[in-house]
Structure formats: C-alpha cells, structure tokens
Write a structure and sequence with these properties.
Length: 71
C-alpha cells in the first residue's frame, strides 16, 4: 500500500516528481529519495512550504527528510 502522502506529492511539481520518490513514513517523518546532490539542495530549499502543504492533508507528517537514493 502506498504511503498516504503519495497522493499529495503532486504538490511538489512535475520536475521534482521526476527526480524524487517517496521512501515511506516512519515516526512522523516522511522520507523522500532524490537522485542527485543538486536535487537534494533544491528540495531542501522547498522543505518548509512542501511540509506545510503535506500537513494540510496529513497532519501526522511532522518532518520531511530528503536523502540521496534510488528514484
């Protein structure tokens, strides 16, 4: 079953979705994998507004973590 935040990841934008994948939710943290250091930097810049958007539909998400990994 996909993580509940998967449906909201559309708010990240089309280009971001091409370079990211949701790893899962654990202890209120949404883990998102990115495919390069450049995208890690970009997504970290967008962390606060993305987290607010996600929390509007999924208040259980307390933290948004980006990691380099397989997308």
């Amino acid at each position: 079953q996909p993580p509940p935040a998967l449906c909201c990841w559309r708010d990240a934008g089309e280009s971001a979705r091409q370079h990211t994948s949701i790893g899962g939710i654990k202890d209120g943290m949404l883990i998102v994998y990115v495919d390069s250091p450049a995208w890690l930097f970009q997504m970290n810049l967008k962390r606060v507004p993305l987290l607010r958007q996600l929390q509007s539909e999924h208040p259980e998400i307390q933290k948004l973590i980006f990691k380099i990994g397989k997308v």
